[in-house]
Amino acid sequence: MRRVTRNLVLAILAVLVVLLALGALPGLLKSGDPYYLTATPVGEAASGTNGSSANGTVTNASIANGSAVDGANLSERAYPYTTAALDNATDGEPGQSQPYWRGPVGFKEAFTHSPFDEVNALRGQHPNATVGEGVRVARNGTLYRVAVTQ
């Protein structure tokens, strides 16, 4: 093999190793206190079309009018933190997802899925369900406020 060809092959292999490391490494980076996605029960989901009052409090949030996200239709693959928090919530007690640590200098956020991504996606898809920094999610007749906590 010619020297130039060998160097090119080695350079390509080095780039592949670096790209593989970038795919695996961000998940291992941990910095600061962990963040959780917390689902706090706030009431019962209404079946009608009433919504929120002018000050943002829930009067009768429902899936029908878009003032709550339908938690039964959330994909476990697309929303792993949200579904885990909803699964862990029991009879008036809040549920938390698995912990998520931010990486140093924002490196990790560019390569991994986070609870912040999920809340932002739900807020973007269901703007009427937004409440403060969280979002209202209705599941099995219970209304939850889902938000990132530390």
UniProtKB/TrEMBL annotation:
<protein>
    <submittedName>
        <fullName>Uncharacterized protein</fullName>
    </submittedName>
</protein>
